[in-house]
Each structure stands twice: as C-alpha cells, then as structure tokens.
From TrEMBL:
Lineage, broadest ranks: Bacteria, Bacillati, Bacillota, Bacilli, Bacillales
GO molecular function ontology, one term from the record: D-malate dehydrogenase (decarboxylating) (NAD+) activity
Cofactor(s) for this UniProt protein: Mn(2+); Mg(2+)
Transit peptide listed as a keyword: no
Protein name: D-malate dehydrogenase (decarboxylating)
SMART domains membership: Iso_dh (SM01329)
Species of the source: Pseudobacillus wudalianchiensis
Domain Isopropylmalate dehydrogenase-like as annotated: residue spans: 17-360
Length: 369
C-alpha cells in the first residue's frame, strides 16, 4: 500500500512521499513543472497529497564529490513511494559514469525491471509521417529494464596493448525474460490489444532464440491475445511504413532503448517522450522520468519543453491508482497542443518552460472543476 494515511477533519488524506532527483542541465527546469502539475491535481482532489524531498545528485554533485550520489543513496531512496528524475548527464562527466552510477544503479537496485514508454501521437502534436493517420501511432512499449544487453557483464583484456580484447556480454535469465514477457501479455490482455515481440533470433543465436522460445511458451497462457513477432531491423522499418500494426510491444533492453527513440520521433518529438521504470511487486520505489536528456546547450535559458516531464508525472498518477487524473493530465496536454498558443521554441512557439507548465495547470483546473 502506498503512502501514509492521516485524518484531516474526518477526511482521510493519503500522502505520497516522492524523492526528486532533478539532476543536470534542463532537469531542474522541467521537473519543476511536473511538480507543479502533481500539486495542482492533489489540490483539486483533497484525498491525497504529495511530499517532495529533493536530492542534489547528478554530474555537478560528481564534480564536487567524485560520485554521482551519496554512498548510502539507495538506502535513503528506499523510504519513498516513488522517484521523480529530471535528467542525467553533462559535459566533463563521461556518459558511462553518469548512467551507471546513478540511473542504472537505481533501476537495478530497486529491480525496476519494467520500462514503460508510450508512443502515442497526441492531438495537436506534429505528425511526421506523410502516409499515416494520427490514430495509427498509438503504441505502448514494454522494455526489459534490468538485464539483457545492459547487464554490465564483460571484460577488458590486455588493455592498451596490441592484442586488446573487449567482451560485452548480454544476460538473459529465464526469470528476467519470462517476467517481462508475462507483464506485457497482462497489459495487452487488460487493454484488449495485440502484443508484438521484437528480437533478432536470426543473428543472435542464443539470447534471441531463447527470447522467442519464452515468448511462444508464455503466449500459450494468453490465447485471447493476438501476437506477432518481428526482427528488430524489420520492426524499425515497419514502425515507419505501417505503424498501426504495433499496439503493445515487448522487447529487450537495448532494442527497446533504440526503438522508443524512433517512436519519440513518430509521436511529436523527444520533448514529448516520457518513461516509467516500474517495480511491479512494489517492494521498492518506481521511478518516473522524461527521456530527452539534460540538453546542456539550452540549460538555464528557460526554454526547455516540460511536456515529457509532465507526461511522466501522469504515469506516476496512473501507478498510484489515479488513472482518471493521469488521463486528465494528458487531456490538458492535448488541449495545450491544439490551441498552439503556449509552446516552447522546439515546438515553434515562444513561451518559456514555466509558462507552459502554468498553462497546463490552468487547463487541468478547468477540466477537473
């Protein structure tokens, strides 16, 4: 059970404790707007509220302390119901340091083995495909998030020598593979949609043959779900040529990482791309984040697009069981996009980050009241 429940004038108010890691670059700017939206929703409901605790971790922290987060950072985060992450990465700190010592450390420590990335073209968002309709782009990617190609297993032999050898091993366990595929089947069943598996079994003759085998085994438990299976290169082509064939999609860590960036391009751009890192058993906090990165070139200018951060806030509302408010936030975003008056420069507008957040809050206020 999430949150702490307390009586306030005979009304039970549930408090959700959120750890905020605003991070680097534009992270603090966009995360502020997501916090603004979450507080507005809670204000209009009165049955729950959010308690935000901020942590200064990230690349700036690294330059001062030689580490991306406190040594006991994972222990500190265990006390929270969810984590809200802005962005990680900044020039001067190697990408593998910023990724492995913060983001992946959290994902792995809290067994956030489900990564959920919606690829849905909202009303008013730019449609980049000439021969597609808006309703054709409505995918939900379920990406394995704890092992696979990002397991971190391997070796670097004879470093710096003429016969230098690097080994990067993928790890696909029976437990890890089956649980992500089963989660995707449950999602497809719940939503009444088809499920597509994406692999590369013709070339990866161990890991992906195993993946396909497990997918076929699990599919026997879900006869009501229509299924398809594609090689990753064919899937990339078909996402462009015929996006409507993809509804719920399940794939590995690496393939999911790449294809969801392609999906972001199809669904209005990286400024609208949100992601959730879920521990379905809820033994540990889950983490919600925009996936656009820290964009240091525009950091501090107040022009970053906060909509991906706001979308990830709607995913948090869904996770806490307030799907109706999650939908309201998306509806407010669509309203903002359709009216086209308060948009950041990346969407051909002139508004600031905070002005976009303020407008979304105003629309939410009108929708809920």
């Amino acid at each position: 059970m999430f949150g702490i429940k307390a009586k306030k004038e005979e009304i039970i108010v549930e408090t959700f404790k959120i750890a905020v890691i605003a991070g680097d670059g534009i992270g603090p700017e966009v995360i502020n707007e997501g916090v603004k939206v979450l507080n507005k929703v809670a204000e209009l409901d009165s049955g729950f509220q959010f308690e935000f605790t901020y942590f200064p971790w990230g690349c700036e922290f690294y330059t001062k302390h030689g580490k991306m987060m406190d040594d006991d950072g994972i222990e500190q985060l265990k006390e929270f119901d969810a984590i809200y992450l802005g962005a990680v990465g900044f020039p001067g700190v190697p990408d593998h340091i910023s990724l492995w010592d913060l983001l992946l450390r959290i994902r792995k420590s809290f067994d956030q083995y489900v990564n959920i990335r919606p690829v849905t073209l909202l009303k008013g968002a730019h449609l980049p495909l000439v021969d597609a309709k808006r309703e054709d782009i409505d995918m939900l990617f379920i990406r394995e998030n704890s092992e696979g190609e990002y397991s971190g297993a391997g070796d670097w032999l004879f470093k710096g020598q003429e016969h230098e050898v690097v080994l990067q091993n993928s790890v696909f366990s029976r437990k890890g593979t089956e649980r992500i595929i089963r989660y995707a089947f449950e999602m497809a069943k719940k939503e009444g949609r088809s499920l597509t598996s994406i692999s590369k079994a013709n070339a990866l003759n161990y890991s992906m043959v195993f993946w396909d085998q497990v997918f076929e085994e699990v599919s026997a438990d879900y006869p009501e779900v229509d299924t398809a299976s594609y090689l990753v290169d064919a899937a990339a082509m078909l996402m462009i040529k015929d996006p409507k064939r993809f509804e719920v999609v399940v794939t590995s860590n690496l393939f999911g990482d790449i294809l969801t960036d392609l999906g972001a391009a199809l669904a209005g751009g990286i400024g609208l791309a949100a992601g959730a890192n879920i521990n379905p058993e809820r033994k540990f906090p889950s983490m919600f984040e925009p996936i656009h990165g820290s964009a240091p070139d525009i950091a501090g200018q107040g022009v970053a697009n906060p909509l991906a951060s706001i979308w990830s806030a709607s995913q948090m509302l869904d996770f806490f069981g307030y799907e109706q408010y999650g939908r309201t936030v998306l509806e407010a975003m669509e309203h903002l996009l359709v009216e086209g008056e308060v948009l950041t420069p990346d969407m051909n507008g002139t508004a600031s980050t905070s002005e976009v957040g303020d407008r979304v809050v105003h629309i939410i206020d009108s929708l809920i009241k």
